[in-house]
Amino acid sequence: MNQQDLLSFDKNHIWHPYSSMQNSLPVYPVVSAEGVYLQLEDGRKLIDGMASWWSVIHGYNHPKLNAAIKNQLDKMAHVMFGGLTHRPAVELADLLVKITPESLEQVFFCDSGSVAVEVAIKMAIQYWYAAGQPQKQKLLTIRYGYHGDTFGAMAVCDPINGMHNIFSHVLPTHYFADAPTCRNDEEWNEQEIANFQQLLEQHHNDIAAVILEPLLQGAGGMRVYCPEYLRQVSLLCNEYQVLLILDEIATGFGRTGTLFACEQANVIPDILCLGKALTGGYMSLAATLTTAEISNTISSQPPGVFMHGPTFMANPLACSVAVASIKLLLESPWQQRISQLENQLLVDLSVGIALSQVADVRVLGAVGIVELKNNIDIEQVQQKFVKLGVWIRPFRNLIYIMPPYIITPAELTKVTDAIIEVIKTL
After folding, report:
1. Which of 18, 373, 377, 387 is flagged as catalytic?
2. Per residue in 220-278, pLDDT tens?
3. Does the annotation count 146 as an active-site position?
4. In the annotation, is 122 catalytic?
5. From the candidate CATH numbers 3.40.50.150, 3.10.450.50, 3.10.310.40, 3.90.1150.10, the one assigned to the domain spanning 3-61+333-425
């Protein structure tokens, strides 16, 4: 196929994420990627401000990650995890237990972030079933959350402000508290937690777990909230005997300035969901971690096993590159890099506050967000960014970036300058 044939076939036959088959947005064929750059078929190079949906933290085509996959490929690409194990999975689990908050000792590998959330929900419900409280089947979360596109995950996404309201009649119904508005602990007001506390007090007998994205809500609105809110949630979960699930699929592996966002609140969850940057963006892999108390309770009562098991669970190629990615991160000056990115984003994007189109600018770690007063024409804005040599994927009224950690100040300036320039044209 030439490029025109490729694009024509793609338009007529391939469904892209959140896209229409009748009025599809333009797509841009990528032939290769190196560092922070995407190479298009027509010869243009784009700086990727999205790190391929927040996952490619080390940049593209990294020699150490390439070598990890190539070395594993010569041994085996895949083997079932039922009744078998392998060194890459054991090494990865060992690493995850060491770097995640203390008491998270058991690791369940799965395919994607959405499935990690499904596993966490099932884990919480089965725990209470085994503990003799089978009525505890509901979840409590906050507005503007996003946890994935599978059915269990959709059910804990915001049913009003989220993307799944047309499925509400077939999804399980859960409890949704008002989202926090505090940006930092200096803004803390006890009223922030009042609605959450009220729902927990009224319904804790049938709530299995609370599920939250710590400090940064992702695709539900890119909202930042203060660590004190998370601390208060944790205290209330302990008081009312409800499990705490933290979804760190987007925030994990340094993105917010600490290895995991929950560290900034000194909170340890009962269940932790990881994904996205786990493999440095190379392969789909996720993990759900929990405590020995939860795993032992599930295992000690009928049916005696945890009822989940994906076909490609703990794929050796994915586990191998995940081990390499985590080691690469830990051996790098990642804290310094995130701090530098945060400081530059604060300076560069603050220019947008003076623009009449801008409602808010917020930065957390290596995340920069510009919220506009009105929704934007995604196709039009996307084309403008491509012409300026950057890849940014806005949604609704949000233009945000989560670049690879290796992006240079000059490259980041090109991305932030493009954001301000495009906003001025709207």
Report:
1. 18
2. 999 999 999 999 999 999 999 999 999 999 999 999 999 999 999 999 999 999 999 99
3. yes
4. no
5. 3.90.1150.10
